[in-house]
Predict the structure.
Amino acid sequence: MNISIDIEKALKALASDKRLLVLSLLKDPVGNFPPQVDGDLIEDGVCSNWLTEKMGVAQPTATRHLKVLADAGLIIPTRKKGWVFYKRDEAHITAIKKLFSEEV
Amino acid sequence: MNISIDIEKALKALASDKRLLVLSLLKDPVGNFPPQVDGDLIEDGVCSNWLTEKMGVAQPTATRHLKVLADAGLIIPTRKKGWVFYKRDEAHITAIKKLFSEEV
DNA sequence: TTTATATATAGCAATTTAGCTATATGAATA
DNA sequence: TATTCATATAGCTAAATTGCTATATATAAA
């Protein structure tokens, strides 16, 4: 198995309005964000600049929020042409939901 | 409806090893705790003293952890003969799990 | 009513988190 | 290779969280 789950880490990552917003927006990239040229909204994810803008924080603060989500296995970063795109890690999120249902 | 759910508040309450431990232990009060005289383990819940001991923190610290869980609708306190007993609020927990599944 | 005891609150210190600005890194292009 | 521009890191402050001890409150029993 290559998915290892730390439920406490996931919950700490989720316990933030900014990060919950990011996960929510990433559920519908096409509906929530403008078209991109260098990365496919679905395949690669959403450019960190758009996410930073939606969060309403400075760039380094946004970077850290995104790192927390990525470290908890909730989103997947993809580097492409100098930008970083983020999409939900649905497999891991599903596993977390299952564990949450069972263990809490 | 008398159940109102704040998913962010619930996640913040859950994002703690001590509080996750309490919720976990309360799943099986009879298996995890000794018999009580003044409050029924199932009907009323577990005496805060036992929970304090399991958490391994001082009494006021435990009180605050339990308050965080109660404020988030995860546990229900019952006062009886000078003690406070806590049990899981299964209805609310179920609602939180549903919302978690849908919104995250 | 007084006393004893469980729980809650006050208040403090240490740690963690979240925000910022300034700057370093690193990859794409000229 | 040099430049440019997006992202990452460093380093700081403010706020929130967690732990403690001391003390207040409140309930049960004497």
Notes: Residues 16, 18, 57-58, 60-61, 64-65, 79, 81-82 of chain A lie near DNA strand C (CB under 10 Å from a C1'). Chain A has a mean pLDDT of 95. Residues 6 and 72 of chain A are 8 Å apart (CA to CA). The longest helix of chain A spans residues 90-103.
